[in-house]
Amino acid sequence: MSPPANSSLSSPQPAVLVWTKLGDAVQLPSALREQCLSPYTRNVAPTLHGLPIVVEEESSSNVDDAIVLAPGLTDLALRTVKAEFAKGRDADSTTLRATVLCTPVLDSPLAVDAAVRYIAHDLKADILILDVEDLAAGERGSLGADFTNALWSIYSRHYELREEENALRPLKYELERAEELLSSWTDTLKVRQEELSRYREAIGVV
Fold first, then answer.
1. I need a labelling partner for 132 at 20 to 30 A (CA). Which of 95, 111, 142, 186 fits?
2. Does some domain include residue 63?
3. Into how many domains does the chain fold?
4. How confident is the model at residue 43 (pLDDT cuts 50, 70, 90)?
5. If you average pLDDT over residues 151-168, what whole number do you get?
6. Per 3-state DSSP, what percentage of the chain is helix, strand, and coil (rounded to 5)?
């Protein structure tokens, strides 16, 4: 789910880019937008498989066929996701925040999909849907080789960044140690200067 948008993505959009921690970008192919993106539409209520999605307190006897969500859990999930959006993106963080929705019932994929669509519509957010079967199929799946290669680029880049961070860790330790020594020497110099100043005053030297 992407952060709330100001308008629908029905008009032509630029390429989908995923930014790494170092600021470089990996471009995802058009298959991502064409097959995986469900844009927010203000005047269209959330549905799944043609059925309206409502919470129990909103449902009425007039709605015979609908996917009904529990109000308490839906409200909790909504507030959690909204709080994460409000935090914004922490540029210094290496942790990707995620809100996980799950249910132990037999129709759990249907229930989770419905909850995600309902919450996204309430937040005016677009949804990016990555189906596990399509991902597992790789280049032989419906997303094709270009999409799979783009995902692999992102995945491998993660480990490249980790290796770069590990290589810099000893240098970071040495820098921290040098800063500690410099701070200690600075304190020592300050003490010696104060002692010298008192000695000059004692012997009448200005």
1. 95
2. yes
3. 1
4. confident
5. 78
6. 50, 10, 35
| Backbone angles phi and psi of 99, in degrees to 5 | -110, 125
116 within 8 A of 70, measured Cβ to Cβ: no
Distance between CA atoms of 66 and 63, rounded to whole angstroms?
A: 6
| Full residue range of the structural domain in which residue 107 is found | 16-162
Q: What is the residue-averaged pLDDT of the chain? A: 76
DSSP string, 32-99: IIIIIEE---TTS--EETTEEEEETTT--TT-SS-EEE-HHHHHHHHHHHHHHHHH---TT-------
Name the amino acid, one letter, at 65. D
Q: Please indicate, yes or no, if residue 189 is contained in any of the structural domains.
A: no
Task: Establish if 62 belongs to a structural domain.
Answer: yes
Q: Which two tokens stand for residue 192?
A: 């010696």
CA 133 vs CA 1, 39, 141: distances in Å? 19, 22, 8
